[in-house]
Amino acid sequence: MPPDPPRPGRGDREPEGRGPQANDPGVTGPGASEPPPPHPVTASLVLGLAVGAFGISFGVLATSGGLSTAQACAMSLLVFTGASQFAAVAVVDAGGSTAAALGSALLLAARNGAYGLSLADVVRGRLATRLLAAQLVIDESTAMATAQRDPADQRRGFWVAGASVFVFWNLGTLLGALGGDAIGDPQRYGLDAAFPAGFVALVVPHLRSLDGRLAAAMGVALALVLVPVAPEGVPVLAASLAVLLGLRARPATGGER
Amino acid sequence: MSWTAVLLLAAGAYAFKVLGLVVLGGRALPPRVARCVALLPAALLPALIAVQTLTTEDRWVLDARAAGVAAAIIAAWRRAPFPIVIAVGALVTALVRAAG
Asked: Which comes out higher in pLDDT, residue A24 or A118?
């Protein structure tokens, strides 16, 4: 790892100087020095295991909802967006039309477009590489990549998290579809909370800047307000409107406080 | 669900991913727009956490997940390693759920 200076990601956010932060009342956390971001490889494997448990659930649900094993596996390989897949299968299982299933699933998939935008600087290289990378643009890979400071770690975080989730999600789907419901309901182990818990750890670096904290607060508020009134998928997608606060004019010196 | 539907869904899901990453992304952007794009994960991921923790379908819900994620926030604040943060979140959720 080349000793690059700490860097929060793309864009021109405020510099992450270590000195002034000690006196910065806005910095959260128990100390002044920054904790290292989660190690991309270890963290990705842990996330992958939790995803695998839900892959099994998906396989079970898909086949009990009328999909063949091949269809369930093709969905996990080709669609590869957990929430969308669960939504599509649930709509069909509840007697909904194919169009309704596709609509619900695609609304949930739309946020991957926003993730892709923010990952464009992380995933570079030949077009073929980027077209392959696009399939791995999901919640987990985005969170893992953008939590890292160093550009090389961001790249590694994206690929390792994407690959880990891909492998475990597809293995889980195959097991579940073949009837290997060995572990039962993942909720019994609290695994449904494993994702928000993991994202908490990965979101911390985004909260170091004032803009990051404001965007987070606005995003959460927008999403929660919309949950009772908007279709599934829309609340999180709409949270992206919070980034418009980046348009604010600021002094030419680059400071924002 | 037909094969056509599976493949349509795959094409649609991939279209979103590729649109952001390859088609629109990676261009030189004016500084203000670049700032907005850089803020996307900061806006979306906490919203995702909130929705996954505090809602079920179209309702606000305060249940075992909230306890688990609150414990995970404390663990992250105490700088616990990533696997511990996840384990704490899942374990506390499971315990509260089992007790409830």
From this structure: A118
